[in-house]
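Reader question, answered in our methods column.
A reader sent in the components of a multi-part assembly and asked whether the whole thing could be modeled at once rather than chain by chain. We filled in our standard form and ran it. Here is what they sent:
COMPLEX SIZE: two components
ENTRIES:
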Amino acid sequence: MTEPFDLNHWCAHHLQRVEQALDTWVSVDATADLDHAAPAELMVAMRYAVLDGGKRLRPLLVMAAFEAVTQGMRQAGLAVAASDEELALRAACAVELIHAYSLVHDDMPCMDNDVLRRGKPTVHVEFGSASALLAGDALQALAFELLTPDNAAVPASRQACLCRLLARAAGCAGMAGGQAIDLASVGRALSEDQLREMHQLKTGALLQASVMMGAACGDATAQARQALQTYGAAMGLAFQVVDDILDVTADSATLGKTAGKDQAQDKPTYVSLMGLEPARRYAQTLFQQALVALAASGLPDTRALQGLASLLVQRSS
Amino acid sequence: MTEPFDLNHWCAHHLQRVEQALDTWVSVDATADLDHAAPAELMVAMRYAVLDGGKRLRPLLVMAAFEAVTQGMRQAGLAVAASDEELALRAACAVELIHAYSLVHDDMPCMDNDVLRRGKPTVHVEFGSASALLAGDALQALAFELLTPDNAAVPASRQACLCRLLARAAGCAGMAGGQAIDLASVGRALSEDQLREMHQLKTGALLQASVMMGAACGDATAQARQALQTYGAAMGLAFQVVDDILDVTADSATLGKTAGKDQAQDKPTYVSLMGLEPARRYAQTLFQQALVALAASGLPDTRALQGLASLLVQRSS
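And here is the structure of the entire assembly that came back:
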């Protein structure tokens, strides 16, 4: 009945689409139809921050959620517009731009002062802090530009919904808010609830938004939206738990960033709070919660979402 | 026929609305209906950056353009929805948030390293660089959040259009791009064309977007949109020319920021390029261009826009 599903193949296919789209949209050429083109120097720093690196987990979550929802639409006899396909790709890239900008700013001397990211010198090391600051700022704006193509074929309702989801996930009640709590928490003891709240904002909000943005590029039932919300929340938390585990178990070369950083900075983590083995078990519990939610989604085929969840929990970097 | 127009009264009325709206929307309470509230520490820095200061020129341009367009609509027998009124106020605040975030980041040690802004210590002096960075990032996201209320009464087409205009004006082919050129131009000789290009991006794009966003909250004719585009472009340039003049003629106390900064940093300005008197004449020429554009707009009443243009050119701080 259903075709066999190969997660590696699925990921490779969508990664290639995302990489190509990022290469196209984060470029001086992409600004050519505007009144003014972007200055080349700034674009070089922006491209350095975005291209050639990164696991693209968030874009893959967008694509997987979009695919799951559109398969549901097709099963219900609804047509999927070509413009929705493109919008999903735009949403995937927009989320990645927000993620990339947050890394650029997070690595800056006034924040984590990190010199290594994805195995390369960080943006401020390569281009200077002022350029890193501006490149990050411009990447955030570009994310919202990608979501609002001046194209009447792309329904404005979808464009507005995507901007709403992304703005909330990125802002003070999302990623930036979580980073602020993180900043204030160095050297302080947090309870498990406080730690969870911090991570829900810092990492969880954008991961969950990725899933919901993919769904928003199609027409999801209320049941499916609810299930994807739960899936996204579990995945967001699991991601951070695994991150904390890797910070103490992996080396810098594998991670492509400085390992042991949280420990060195005396930051509270799931490992410091729970211990290593309980943290591992917690990640597994969250993985199971995500699968249960998908099973209750009413969506006909969620294998890509299941596969990404297992990748996320089993990752080694 | 038409009522007498009092610019001071008009400004006071709309300033009060904008201040009140910023006070309401840049607050922890405004995030209460989301899954998570914004952390209080971050919001304190955001509010410090936005409230109690600033001429609010951009919000006033939004309101004036909206008013001019809606007067045109009423004259043509079209209704203006209450939701459009609120959306214009949201747009006015969103533009100000982008402006405020750009000042916060611009003042940081890795950029202009300025300690005084609107007569107060800059955000990084008051809260530290890391908090300033995050507050700026969160203000940018909040701007797009304000433009996308989860309210079916606000047409998605307007929401999407506003996000599109703001994202382009703020990003790499707008404000952030202009700042990157500015950064690269310190100590270099620029031609008048290059200087104009830099300022079109750095300051002009957002001022012009303010006008166009006000127009986008109503239904403007193509003729009116074209005229407002020209008006906005002239005002954007005039603003920078006047800024350059004030940098050499005003003192820090009047400006509420460090005077003579451009000169000290050997930055190219209209004054250094043209001389003081020619720069003053150029500002007057741009003012006249703006008035000519308004006269050709077909809009029945553009007195607020005319008044703001004259304020902008005659300002002393």
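What stands out: Chain B has a mean pLDDT of 91. Residues 179 and 236 of chain B are 15 Å apart (CA to CA).
Send us your own complexes using the same form.
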